[in-house]
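User: Hello, can you help with two protein structures?

Assistant: Certainly.
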Amino acid sequence: MTDEAAGLQRRIRAWLIVFIVGLALSGLTAFPMVTEVRLLDQMVTAWRVDEWLPPFAEWITRVRAGYEVVAAQHPFILYGTDWLAFAHLVIAVAFWGPYRDPVRNVWVVQFGLIACAGVIPLAVICGPIRGIPWGWTLIDMSFGVFGAIPLWIVLRMIRRLEAMLREAVEPVSLRA
């Protein structure tokens, strides 16, 4: 492997680490959802967000109340967020394949891009059905957009790496 290809592979790995860490953190934060929403509601109150962004403050208070009722009376429903967290962690592990061999495992990056694209119709369709405010739906859709950015960069770099590696092994007579 040339120095240029090795450098490209290091950059691919760095972007994948960013994506893996983001995905894992996103998953890990789904486990303590009730505690996190309580803390967020306390911060919104302490920072007096209700004075300059009342709909957001009201939404957070409503979400906190809903989580507290569910946690107290129907804790088994929170099992769904445990599975959400687990899914994020499992998907993060899948990106170890492209980390080790980006060209061979490019399909995982393509799968990730498809999943990121799928976030948008899911949010647009299910958000209104579940009574999610449009602003929050936009926040949810941003996860798909911001998740796709590093994956798109990685996909382009993998294609360049693939071309470099192919060029390095093809005989000169076959390149023409």
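That covers the first. Now for the second protein you mentioned:
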Amino acid sequence: MLTSVPLSPGALMKRIRLLIVLFIAALVFSGITAFPIEWELRIAHTWIQQCDCSNAVTQWIERTYTGITDTNARYPFIAYGTDWLAFAHLVIAIVFIGPLRDPVRNIWVIEFGMIACVCIFPLAFIAGAARGIPIFWRILDCSFGIIGGLLLASCYTRIKLLEQLQSETESAV
């Protein structure tokens, strides 16, 4: 049971919409931050230089910063791939407007999102290993699947409850 207090369809709809808005915001934020990768890494690089700290994470960030700056200097068109990554996040966020408007009718979008969250794991562990991504970074990538999956699973459960409440209301009328 989601809550010990029975929810009205209106209150349930508000909770569903809040979860969807949080998911959309996360997709938009993730997408927007994919555009200025070199700038973001420069900030991290500056901080690492100032703190004079060294561990696996800072070493990875430094390696990534060097790779991005070298690649962008010599082959700036490669960054176009991350532009498309950012664009994909923004487009996927737009798709979630459907369940924001009518969650019961568009529950398939929530299901799609949950499947995508699960699919993060094989991508992170297979492609990440093939590309030499450290395990701690692949686990960090998987955390997006976990958090997103939990948000969407909670949303899905609430949408099914809303569907049931709407069905009961329609049969009573």
